[in-house]
Amino acid sequence: MSTTNLPEVWLRGPLPEVPALVQPVAHALLQAREELNAQLANFPDTQLWVRPAGVASVGFHLQHLTGVLDRLCTYARGEALTPEQLQNLAQEEYGSVAAGTTRALLQAFDEQVEHMLAQLRRTNKAALREPRGVGRAQLPSTVLGLLVHAAEHTMRHLGQVLVTARIVGARAE
């Protein structure tokens, strides 16, 4: 189904079973998913890792978005990162290129958004103020802080990836 004629996700009404206080988080993630899939539907795999002017590539942003959502979900549940999550984080930090296509990276992001939505549906509003530690240093946050950061971080990278994709696409023409 095309979403081009629909209003932005946040203007389509509440999402079923998502607690009211985290509706904006769900709306932002769904908006990002729609925009990424629409704007990158025909993005060439050969341009995925191009870094115009040394900025992060489209591939990095897609990989990073998926990884960050995964990690923030883990922290919000009050769990430590797994060795696999730590390895993925290290690969992101050092610019290791994951194998895959634009479609595969978009699919991985789509799936992570679904995992995050499922977690939002399970979130008890009484738990939103519960403290959570972030990272090895266990920096202080809360369940709500982590969930809101997931939304704002996703939207920040959405803007970056869309601009980078446009620049890379213009250079390829």
3D architecture notes:
Residues 29-161 form the DinB-like domain. It comes from Hymenobacter elongatus. This is DinB family protein. InterPro entries: DinB-like, DinB/YfiT-like. It holds the Pfam family DinB_2. The structure is a single chain. By secondary structure, this protein is mostly helical. It has one domain (20-172): dinb family like domain (Four Helix Bundle (Hemerythrin (Met), subunit A), Up-down Bundle). Helices cover 57% and strands 5% of the residues. It has helices spanning 23-39, 58-76, 83-93, 102-122, 143-172, and strands at 131-134, 139-142. Strands 1-2 form a two-stranded antiparallel ribbon. The mean pLDDT is 92.
> Which parts are unreliable, with pLDDT below 50 for 5 consecutive residues or more?
none
Radius of gyration, in angstroms, nearest whole number: 16 Å
Label the overall shape: globular
Helix-strand topology string: HHHHEEH
DSSP summary: helix tally: 5
Instruction: Let me know the average pLDDT.
Output: 92
Look at the helices and sheets and give the structural class. mainly alpha
The domain tally reads 1
Q: What fraction of residues sit in β-strands?
A: under 5%
- State the helicity in percent bands: 55-70%
User: Which oligomeric state applies?
Assistant: single chain
Terminal CA distance reads 29 Å
CATH class: Mainly Alpha
Largest sheet, described in full? Answer: 2 strands, antiparallel
CATH architecture classification name: Up-down Bundle
CATH topology: Four Helix Bundle (Hemerythrin (Met), subunit A)
Main sheet strand line-up = 1-2
For this structure, what is the CATH homologous superfamily?
dinb family like domain
Number of strands: 2
